[in-house]
Amino acid sequence: MDIFYPLQWIADRITYDLIGLSPESRLGAAVDFFFYDVPKILLLLSVIIFVVALIRSYFPPEKTRKYLSHSREYVGNVLAAALGVVTPFCSCSAVPLFIGFVEAGVPLGVTFSFLIASPMVNEVALILLLGMFGWKVAGLYLVSGLIVAITGGIILGRLGLDDQIEEYVLKIRMGQAEIPTMTRAARFSYARGYVAEIVGKVWLYVVIGIAIGGFMHGFIPSDALAAYAGPDNPLAVPVAVAMGIPLYSNAAGVIPIVSVLVDKGVAMGTVLAFMMAVTALSIPEFVILRKVMKPKLIGIFIAINFVTITFTGYLFNWAIPLLMR
Question: What does the CA dihedral 203, 204, 206, 209 come to, rounded to 10 degrees?
Answer without folding.
Answer: 180
